[in-house]
Write a structure and sequence with these properties.
The complex is a heterodimer. Chain A is of the alpha+beta class. Chain A contains 11 helices and 13 strands. In chain A, the strands form 5 sheets. A 5-stranded mixed sheet of chain A has the order 12-11-10-3-13. A two-stranded antiparallel ribbon of chain A has the order 1-2. A two-stranded antiparallel ribbon of chain A has the order 4-5. In chain A, a hairpin with a 5-residue loop joins β1 and β2. Chain B is mostly helical. The complex binds iron/sulfur cluster (SF4) (2 copies).
């Protein structure tokens, strides 16, 4: 496994090793420096490694090869290109959202965020004084005319061929122009050292999940681009208990519900339920569609008047 | 009103001009104390910046919603003030207006100092200043930031040239006269005077170059502040999404820049005892100029606030209500009244265009101009299209932190230090041009 470790298995592998004594050795063993040192070691010296199926094996240190520098450029490259032939869309059914916030938790977990950092945020909305209030999950809209990527001076945030807008936190200079430009307030900034920075400091940066997070750079919803590559649904979509989210490929005209796993026609879903996008007058052309909160599956339990609930 | 200073000027001789202008450069105890003070302030505040570098921008009051704060307001202010160089020495210079001669160099020095520090302020605002070269490696022309960096640098270069070129004859004089200065300065004068001895052909070439630069700097100066305004106007936010931001910013810059110039003029006049050169005439004219630019600015303000205020579109209404009567009302109205309306009303009277009253009014205008920048940047960020929810309390308000204030003080002290040092090593009033203007003949030895 050490030779042709794909990045995914390596990450899982690192996770499974956890905090055992071997971990430090393995991590540094895989880091460029560690490996370079290892090559210089006497032959015959071995290290203990845990395989994916849970077996402990001994490997000659000289056989360890650095896998870090290559995959970084490789990850960056494929992260920038995107998945060919796809055109991802999300549909959010507002009639089903009851503010369970499982999507927020799953997202924060997946992207190593603090509890107050939101790639996706469930907002309590009321459109006009006498209209019915509702809950509205709001991820990045992955605009087709994205104001954020236009203003970035270094191309650190960009749109890929499959419609996802990503961030390269290895390149971002932290000017925060994209925050100013995003009308959906979808972006967050790492004002201080990110959560668990120490713990993940040896992890290779994966642009598709934007982890590990980096101080002084931007982060935002990525449609879990790393999970899409493995044919999984985004974290928020899979973790919603109430069937709020549909996610899929516009080219196939099919979206799948994250809770019921039912696949439906995207165009039909939008048409029958009068789907819409947020702030269409701004011309940003979002890829996130909303179904209006009609025939709701629950009582609105929020309190728009109570400021306490809003923060 | 013109004959009073004229009478005085007839008593000037070239020797006296030289003597008056070079004196403060050689021996000025107060100036050295002032420099020491500035350096102390800068060192203390540099520590604040170090803390920010170490711990991240989280030590500031900025958060995900107000992600641009004091620093960007400062940046806009610095760029605005620096435009005075273009206004005075280029536009008025090209119009061959003579009364600007004694103050044109002060204007250029202010321009150089403020635009240089503006560049630094942008870097101080960056989350990853260590990656600033990325802008060169991966720079993209779609981004107004790149245009901004380009024009700020261009403006700085041209302003430096516009400071040095007209000074060449004076530096040739410095080289000959200032025998006791340090060897470093002597060398500097030697190099920068380029062997100028005021032959007719040298004179002609030099003036051709200067005039060319004066023409070039006008579009660059317009560009720098227009592009700065586009940092805001290119976004879709209420309060920034307007088409007149470019000219609006330029007009505001002329107001702020003129005020800064008047304050500096007053200081140099008193401290360097240059009453014979920076006369009441200059203050009087500057006062009139300020009325003119303030009126233009007022007109833009009317357009900027009255038109959306009339319609009260969704989104704009919250923003405007907060400005007019809400949380920002005190700052908004004080910037409009102190920085614009009241000064215009006062400055139409001659007695307020005397040095001291004009200087005091200018201080208010400067303060108003700074507050105005603050009110442009922050309230808009606090009123996004979608509500601010589920975030900690300090995301919903913005108060600059002590670190931010220290770094701000740092940038101001730095600008003042640059001005002070430049005015210490260079003659602050053009010697040869003053002589030229008074029809006094002079020779420069090789
Ligand atoms: S929602 Fe904001 S961050 Fe996302 S693509 Fe649109 S502008 Fe960019
Ligand atoms: S903060 Fe980073 S991603 Fe955003 S515009 Fe600046 S460089 Fe680009």
């Amino acid at each position: 496994m050490k030779e042709e470790t794909s990045n995914n298995s390596r990450r899982k592998f690192l996770k499974s090793v956890g905090l055992t004594v071997g971990a430090a050795g393995v991590v540094s063993g895989f880091s460029l420096l560690g490996a370079a040192k290892a090559v210089a070691q006497e032959p015959g010296e071995t290290v203990n490694l845990l395989t994916q199926d849970g077996q402990l094996v001994q490997v000659d240190k000289n056989q360890l090869r650095p896998t870090v520098s290559e995959p970084l450029t490789e990850l960056q490259k494929r992260g920038r290109e995107g998945i060919a032939g796809k055109s991802f869309v999300m549909v959010i059914d507002l009639s089903k959202c009851r503010n369970a916030r499982k999507c927020m938790d799953a997202c924060q977990n997946h992207h190593q965020l603090r509890p107050d950092q939101h790639h996706i945020n469930v907002l309590q909305m009321q459109d006009a004084e006498h209209t019915a209030p509702y809950f509205m999950p709001k991820p990045c809209q992955h605009c087709d005319n994205p104001p954020c990527t236009k203003v970035c001076p270094v191309d650190a945030t960009f749109k890929r061929q499959d419609g996802i807008v990503l961030i390269d936190n290895e390149r971002c200079i932290g000017c925060r122009f994209c925050i100013a430009a995003c009308p959906y307030s979808a972006r967050i900034f790492q004002w201080t050292e990110p959560k668990d920075a120490e713990k993940y400091k040896d992890l290779t940066y994966n642009i598709e999940a934007n982890v590990p997070q980096k101080k002084g750079t931007i982060s935002k919803c990525l449609f879990s681009a790393d999970r899409l590559r493995e044919n999984k649904l985004p974290s928020c979509v899979s973790s919603c208990p109430n069937g709020v989210y549909y996610f899929g490929d516009q080219n196939e005209d099919a979206v799948t519900n994250g809770t019921t796993h039912e696949t439906v026609r995207f165009s039909q879903l939008i048409e029958e339920n009068a789907g819409y996008t947020l702030l269409p007058e701004l011309g940003t052309k979002p890829r996130v569609y909303y179904l209006p909160p009609k025939n709701r599956a629950f009582e609105f339990n929020g309190d728009l008047l109570n400021e306490e609930n809003l923060h | 009103m013109n004959d009073l200073p004229k009478q005085k000027e007839t008593t000037l001789s070239f020797e006296k001009i030289k003597e008056d202008i070079l004196r403060p450069m050689q021996n000025h105890k107060g100036l050295e104390l002032w420099i020491a003070f500035l350096i102390t302030v800068i060192s203390v505040c540099a520590w604040a910046y170090y803390v920010q570098l170490r711990d991240g921008l989280g030590v500031t009051g900025m958060r995900d919603y107000v992600s641009w704060g004091l620093y960007i307001a400062n940046f806009v202010f610095f760029v605005a003030v620096s435009l005075v160089g273009m206004l005075i020495s280029s536009i008025l210079g090209l119009l061959r207006i003579e009364w600007i001669t004694p103050i044109s160099r002060i204007a250029e020095i202010i321009a150089v100092a403020f635009v240089a520090v503006a560049g630094l302020v942008i870097i101080m605002d960056m989350g990853r200043p260590d990656r600033v070269v990325n802008v060169l490696i991966h720079g993209r022309f779609q981004s107004p930031i790149l245009w901004d960096i380009t024009v700020v640098t261009t403006y700085l270069v041209i302003s430096v040239l516009l400071l040095i070129l007209p000074m060449i004859p004076d530096l040739a004089i410095c080289k000959n006269e200032l025998k006791k200065t340090s060897p470093v300065l002597k060398k500097l004068y030697n190099i920068l005077s380029f062997g100028y001895i005021n032959t007719p052909s040298q004179h002609k070439h030099l003036h051709k170059m200067i005039r060319t630069l004066m023409v070039i700097i006008v579009p660059v100066g317009l560009a720098i502040h227009t592009v700065t305004s586009w940092l805001f106007a290119a976004t879709l936010r209420n309060g920034w999404d307007t088409t007149i931001f470019g000219p609006y910013f330029v007009a505001g810059a002329f107001v702020a820049g003129s005020a800064a110039l008047v304050v500096a003029m007053y200081f140099f006049r008193v401290s360097y005892k240059l009453q014979d050169y920076i006369t009441d005439l200059q203050f009087d004219k500057m006062g009139k100029l300020m009325v003119a630019v303030c009126l233009v600015y007022l007109y833009f303000n009317l357009n900027e606030f009255l038109v959306p205020g009339y319609k009260m579109k969704t989104g704009d209404d919250i923003h405007l209500k907060e400005l007019f009567t809400g949380h920002w009302a005190i700052m908004f109205w004080s910037s409009q009244l102190l920085g614009n309306i009241i000064p215009v009303m006062l400055l139409v009277t001659k007695k307020f265009r005397k040095p001291l009253p004009l200087m005091i009014i200018s201080l208010f205008i400067l303060a108003g101009a700074w507050i105005k920048r603050y009110v442009i940047v922050i309230p808009t960020l606090l009123h996004p299209h979608l509500p601010i929810q589920n975030v900690p309390d300090n995301f919903v308000h913005y108060y600059p932190s002590a670190i931010e204030i220290s770094v701000t003080v740092l940038s101001f002290a730095l600008a003042l230090l640059i001005i002070t040092v430049l005015s210490k090593i260079f003659p602050i009033v053009p010697i040869c041009e003053t002589a030229d203007n008074n029809g006094i003949d002079y020779k420069i030895d090789a």
